[in-house]
Structure formats: structure tokens, C-alpha cells
Design goal:
One of its GO terms (biological process) is nucleoside triphosphate catabolic process. About 30% of the residues lie in helices and about 10% in strands. By secondary structure, it is an alpha+beta fold.
């Protein structure tokens, strides 16, 4: 069985650090003129590659066509 992959992308660029050093690379990753550290929390989460991937997974689950979802218990 082929694995299902749900992914997201956030386009941006690496810049000199700006904003509070909250988490990892947020102060150096800029998206549309603002680093992730400078963004309001809700805006940053809505842009998140993790959020995008999880949203795609949720959409797939909601379709009901998840017969290929397989869990192996040990």
C-alpha cells in the first residue's frame, strides 16, 4: 500500500532576525515582508505548512473515501 502524504508550503525567504525570539526559525523566516516572529499568532498559524497539511488531511477524512486508511496494531 502506498502511503498518503498531506503537505503544505509556506513561501518566504531567510532574512536577518526580527521580532521576538519565540520559536526556532520564526525570527529569520519572512513571508510577504513580515517575519513569522512579528506576525499575530492567528495569522501565523493560518499560514503554517503544518496547518495546511492537517487541513488537507481533514478534508480527505471528511470525504469518507478513506478505505485506504490502514492502522496496524501490535
Amino acid at each position: 500500500m502506498e502511503p498518503l502524504v498531506f503537505q503544505g508550503r509556506l513561501k518566504g525567504k531567510i532574512v536577518p532576525a526580527r521580532g521576538p525570539p519565540r520559536f526556532g526559525w520564526e525570527p529569520i523566516f519572512e513571508h510577504e515582508g513580515e517575519t513569522l516572529a512579528e506576525m499575530e499568532h492567528g495569522k501565523k498559524n493560518a499560514l503554517s505548512h503544518r496547518y495546511q497539511a492537517l487541513y488537507k488531511f481533514q478534508q480527505w477524512l471528511a470525504q469518507g473515501d478513506n478505505r485506504s486508511l490502514y492502522f496496524e496494531s501490535k
